[in-house]
Amino acid sequence: MKTLVLVGGGHAHLHCLEQLKKEPQRDWRVVLISPSRHQYYSGMFSGYAEGIYRLDDIRIDLQKLCEQVGAVFLEDRIAGVDGRNKRLAGTKGVYPFDVASFDVGSQSDIPAELVERVSKIKPNYRFPEALVKFREAAYPVIAGGGASGVEMAFSVLAWRKKNGLPSNVTLFSSSSLLPGHGAAASKKIEAIARRKALSFFTDERIAAIDEHSVSTQSGRTYPQSDLLWLTGPKSPGFFKHSGLMTDAGGFLLVNESLQSLSHPDLFGAGDCIAIGRYPSLAKNGVYAVRQGSVLWNNLRNQLAGKKLAAFTPQKNFLSILSTGGSEALLMYGKRAAHGKLPWLLKQRLDQQFMQRFKRLYK
Ligand SMILES: Cc1cc2nc3c(=O)[nH]c(=O)nc-3n(C[C@H](O)[C@H](O)[C@H](O)COP(=O)(O)OP(=O)(O)OC[C@H]3O[C@@H](n4cnc5c(N)ncnc54)[C@H](O)[C@@H]3O)c2cc1C
Description:
Layout: E1 2-7, H1 11-22, E2 28-34, E3 38-40, H2 45-49, E4 59-61, H3 62-69, E5 72-75, E6 78-82, E7 87-90, E8 94-96, E9 99-102, H4 127-135, E10 140-143, H5 147-162, E11 170-172, H6 183-195, E12 199-201, E13 206-209, E14 213-216, E15 221-223, E16 226-229, H7 238-241, E17 252-254, E18 266-268, E19 273-275, H8 285-304, E20 319-324, E21 327-332, E22 335-339, H9 340-358
Parallel strand pairs: 1-2, 1-9, 2-5, 9-18, 10-11, 10-16, 11-12, 17-19
Antiparallel strand pairs: 3-4, 6-7, 7-8, 13-14, 14-15, 20-21, 21-22
Bound molecules: flavin-adenine dinucleotide (FAD).
Flavin-adenine dinucleotide binds next to helix 1, strand 2, helix 5 and helix 8.
């Protein structure tokens, strides 16, 4: 019997597990390997940070899910790939495969000299512990003005206001806020930040950190007691170290069929891949979810020796970022709207996403 190994419990692999339940397989078995029994859903991190969701609301039990869909769950972290002999090296063992797929996400791009001194939430299972410590810090500081840094800053600020702590969350961005969403979105989110009294600095890069403060490249010093680093994304190093074909950043290089360019029995999806034809495709949960159906189709077809299908990314996608206080900023193409309604929509979409998988094992 052949073995399909899914490495990581990311968005696209959740879809594969869901499909396995609908289409049980006789000729091959599925093994899911992930370093945590739980997959944490980043779409709900802001609601958790603000105290709206409980821990169980934001995570999926991969072990129970696997049991219910007929897959084997193994708790391990993959650190190397022997593409030629078709073996994966984990920290606890070696795992043979016929076809393997990676959906292991990305890491935060932390400068080497700061890595030991900052708080990290990636891989995602680190999030709850790091966040709970961070939001109670005397001087919480966030590095990164992209979507995740902005959402965390607003949500932690809202939580501190609710819980009677000083509103002194500070956000640093080396560019404008939300630089990937265009100038109008940056202007809008910066106006919201001013209105909500979020302390933020744009075009200001953190260069050094000591026990009590951060110093920026422009020579200023600010107090800190916990620095959450949310810039990135950075690739997991093991693709490159294993001799697989990667892009310059070390992300697994795949074709439109999500198939490795160097090893045809390896596939990937989500943040950890670079698609040769779409080198600047944003790394976010939206594309990771969208790749799920093409990935499942192609994994099945590769095992059966059939033709593979191509993934075509949509040009525009809906982005809804929490700004705290049950408000959110909705962005689609060049349009943006802020208020309670976007938050309600976000809440509904996120809960529906989680229910899709939780109902398979609850
Ligand atoms: C605070 C925050 C908020 C965000 N909000 C949004 C949002 O609202 N919308 C959006 O589209 N994007 C959002 N993002 C980005 C989003 O989290 C990522 O783009 C998305 O999670 C990538 O999904 P993925 O499937 O590639 O991997 P992930 O969801 O990161 O899952 C990776 C999985 O692989 C496992 N894993 C990691 N390393 C290994 C290994 N070596 N071996 C085996 N398993 C491994 C992990 O434990 C995890 O189960 C947010 C990010 C952050 C940090």
